[in-house]
Write a structure and sequence with these properties.
Blueprint (H helix, E strand, L loop, with lengths): L10 H27 L5 E8 L1 H4 L7 H15 L2 E9 L3 H13 L4 E5 L10 H5 L5 E2 L1 H14 L2 H4 L5 E4 L2 E6 L3 H22 L3
Parallel strand pairs: 1-2, 1-3, 3-6
Antiparallel strand pairs: 4-5, 5-6
Helix pairs in contact: 3-8, 6-8
Length: 201
Amino acid sequence: MNDSGSTAIDPDDVVAADAAAREFVARHRDDDVRAVVGDPEIGRALVVVVDDRAAHGEDQTLLGPLLGPLVGELLGEAGFHVDATVTVSGDEVEIRNALNTAVIGGVDLVVSVGGVGVGARDVTPEATEPLLDRRLRGIEEAVRSSGLAAGATDGGLSRGLAGISGQTLVVNLANSRAAVRDGMATVAPLAKHVIEAISEF
């Protein structure tokens, strides 16, 4: 005890205070993580599947229709609300109308799957380009580069486009599971940045 009557700090109290402080920081760090995960959805999205046979109702067990739900699931995990998944044939006018309807409907992101190869019916890029006010070639190349690196050959050789139409980000992906999974892993974080940027205008 000193002259003022105060007592020395007990070392056990110091240890307990340090432990309480570490627990407080850890608890609030966990709260921050939960806040990020629980943030409101980034925006609305729509999926367009380009598949001739599925569009004509020939076989709903084909890969094309199965990719729509996969894209929707991946979009949901990325924080988007998926308004709908529509299936159209590999017809340039049909594809353009589906994409344009999504843009007019005010979705923040529209992802098309299929029609980006070199076949006669692969016309999704041709249908998409007239709708775009600005091309985002960085996203296009990122999707192709990551596709090749991941072994998704159709993703790496895709002619798919990405760009802004009005206030909507439009992205074309190839139609294999590998290309979709890799493409969405590449596009999702970039989409968040683009949507935040265009929403400021």
